[in-house]
Design goal:
It contains two helices and three strands. The protein is an alpha+beta fold. GO terms for molecular function: iron ion binding; iron-sulfur cluster binding.
Length: about 80
């Protein structure tokens, strides 16, 4: 998968999860993909102060991204 395809797939994954985040007053932005394996995102809105944002990041965001781009190893939230 090329870097462009990888970026496109990660963005598709974020588009899939975004409606769930927005329904709770949050959002998410892709910051970068490093070495084609490590994704940095920024949780926004209500997600910033949500007590379960790490669970959302791992169980929701990371799982969805890996569905679209299995080679991704980590997904981290950048404040």
């Amino acid at each position: 998968m090329t870097t462009e395809e990888l970026t496109s797939n990660v963005l598709l994954a974020l588009d899939e999860i975004r409606p769930f985040l927005k329904s709770d007053g949050g959002d998410i932005t892709l910051i970068s993909i490093d070495d084609d394996k490590h994704v940095k995102v920024r949780l926004e809105g209500a997600c910033i102060s949500c007590s379960v944002n790490q669970m959302t990041l791992k169980a929701g965001v990371e799982t969805t991204i890996k569905k679209y781009a299995p080679q991704i190893e980590t997904v981290v939230n950048i404040m």
